[in-house]
Amino acid sequence: MEKSQYEIYTGLVEGGIDEQHANHMVNKLDEWANSLHKDAVLNLQAGIGTLVLGLVVLYITLKIERFEIGAVLIILIGILKVISSLDKKKKYRKIVERLQHGMI
Q1: Which of 16, 25, 27, 83 is most open to solvent, judged by the fewest CB atoms within 10 Å of its CB?
Q2: What are phi and psi for residue 36, nearest 5 degrees?
Q3: CA 28, 32, 38, 41: dihedral to nearest 10 degrees?
Q4: Is the pTM of this model over 0.85?
Q5: Can you tell me the distance from the alpha carbon of 65 to that of 15, in angstroms, rounded to the nearest whole number?
Q6: Which pLDDT score, from 0 to 100, does residue 104 have?
Q7: Is 10 exposed, middle or buried (0-12, 13-18, 19+ CB in 10 A)?
Q8: What's the average model confidence in pLDDT over 21-28?
């Protein structure tokens, strides 16, 4: 259920937030959504970096024949971080697009 900025504003005011703060919050929605989107992109990059690091560590551990489980765990952490970041990035991108088109 999508709400207009006015509906969000009136909901905040009805919830007990004074008009000035409610207006400020609604005006900052696009900035906050962009910030969340950028954070998701950075987390995605960190996940890819972790995944690559895990692959390098796995290569090294296979050469020395020790600590392979630790390397596999690093790879799994990287994969999970990438998956969760992609989901967040997609969600926040939709919010940013809606804000830009005045749909929120």
Answers
A1: 16
A2: -65, -40
A3: -150
A4: no
A5: 61
A6: 58
A7: middle
A8: 85
